[in-house]
C-alpha cells in the first residue's frame, strides 16, 4: 500500500514539469493559460513548481486548453520511437485513429465509417476548420451545402467546414478515410470535383 502511494505521488509530482513544457511549447504565458482555463496565475505557477498538488478539477480544463489527452500530463513522455501508436476514439458513430502526435494545428486521422452511418437521418453541421478527405476503401456520400458528392477509393475532397456538411455511408461495406483536419482553417491543395464537372 505504501509503494502504491509512492507511485501516485511520483506521478503527481511529475505533472508540473510536463505542464510547464507543454505551455512553453505553445508559447503560452501563465496569464494566457489562466484566462483560458479560469485557474488563477498563482495556482498555475504553484502547479508547475510542484508546490500545488494536481487534482482532476485542475487537470481537465488544462488538458482542454492545451489540447492534450489527460494521460499525456500523467504518463511518462513517449520514448524516441518515431512510430505512432494510435488509440482508437469513437466519435459521432465513427472510429477515429489519430495519426499525429503534435497537439494543435493540422491533425491526421484514419476514419472508419460503418455502413448506414449516420443512423437517424442526415443532419448537416458546421464548425471551425478546414477538412481534407481521401477515400481508402468503400464508397461514401458527402453532402456539402446543396451538393451531393459520391466518392470512391482514390478520390479526394477538401472543404471549409463552415459550409454545412455531412458524411454518410449508404453501405453495404465500411468506409475507410484518411482525414486531415485544420482547426484554424489550414488549407490543403487537392480538390475533387463532382462527377461530370469536367477535367
From TrEMBL:
Instruction: List cellular component terms (GO).
Output: cytosol
The record ties this protein, via InterPro entries, to: Cro/C1-type_HTH, Cupin_2, Lambda_DNA-bd_dom_sf, RmlC-like_jellyroll, RmlC_Cupin_sf, TransReg_Diox_bact_type
Q: Quote the CDD domains the UniProt record gives.
A: cupin_XRE_C (cd02209), HTH_XRE (cd00093)
Pfam families per UniProt? Cupin_2, HTH_3
Keyword DNA-binding set for record: yes
UniProt-recorded Gene Ontology molecular function terms = DNA binding; DNA-binding transcription factor activity
Residues of the HTH cro/C1-type domain: 19-73
Keyword entries, A-Z: DNA-binding
The record ties this protein, via PANTHER family, to: HTH-TYPE TRANSCRIPTIONAL REGULATOR, METHYLPHOSPHONATE SYNTHASE
The protein in question is named XRE family transcriptional regulator
Q: What is the lineage of its organism?
A: Bacteria, Bacillati, Actinomycetota, Actinomycetes, Geodermatophilales
